[in-house]
Amino acid sequence: MQIDHVAIVVKDLDAAVRLYTQTLGFREVYREVVYDQGVEAVGLAAGESIVELLRPLSETSPIAKYRGEAETRLHHTAYRVGDLQAKLDELKARGVRLIDERPRQGAHGNLIAFLHPKSTGGVLIELCQPPQASTTPF
Length: 138
Prior knowledge:
Layout: E1 2-10, H1 13-23, E2 27-34, E3 39-46, E4 49-56, H2 62-67, E5 72-80, H3 84-93, E6 104-105, E7 111-115, E8 125-129
Parallel strand pairs: 1-4, 5-8
Antiparallel strand pairs: 1-5, 2-3, 3-4, 6-7, 7-8
C-alpha cells in the first residue's frame, strides 16, 4: 500500500484552494461533487502527493458536524491498493472492523472503502483503488 491522499474538511473551499495553490504552490488536479458522500472534493498535487479538500454540501451533513466550528479539520488518510475487495476481505479476516464491506464509488473515479477508527487507533482510514488505466490520482 502507498499513501493516495490526505483529506481535510474545510469550511471555505475557495479560500483553502487559494492557500494551497497560491501560497503553498500546490497544483489543482481535480474538482468534483460526490453527491452520495455529500461533498465537493478538490485534489491538490504537491509532487507525488495529494491533499484532498472536502467541502460539505450541507452544514447539517455528518462531515460538516465532524468539522464543527473549526475552519478546517483533518478527516482521513487514504491508501492506494491494487485489489480493494481482496484487501477488505483480508482485513476483515484479521478482525479489522469495516465501515464498508464492499467497495463503492468515490472521487476521481476511485473505488473506495473505509475502515472503522475503532480498529485503526482512532484514525479514519480510506482504502482506494484507482481506475484500471491509472496508477496515480493525477
